[in-house]
What does this fold into?
Amino acid sequence: MSSTTTNTLTPRQQDVRDWIAGYIDTHGFSPSVREIGHAYGWTTNGVMCHLRAMRKKNAVTWLDGQARTIRVTGGDA
It folds into this structure.
């Protein structure tokens, strides 16, 4: 599998990435995992599964153990 294929976000991942970017633009800081879960009807574990998959694709990053540090990075901009 090529790196292009493995780094391509799914439509759901792209939607979440766009939502996070919009939240940061609106509020000036990152959403919490719970806020993402509330927006999508997911548990915090479900949110983390999505975020980990997106981090592997370089679409988001965060500092482990610190609140509100999710940042949108490379990936499919």
Summary: Residues 1-5 have pLDDT under 50 and may be disordered. The CA atoms of residues 7 and 56 lie 8 Å apart. Helices lie at 3-7, 11-27, 33-40, 44-56. The two ends are 21 Å apart (CA to CA).
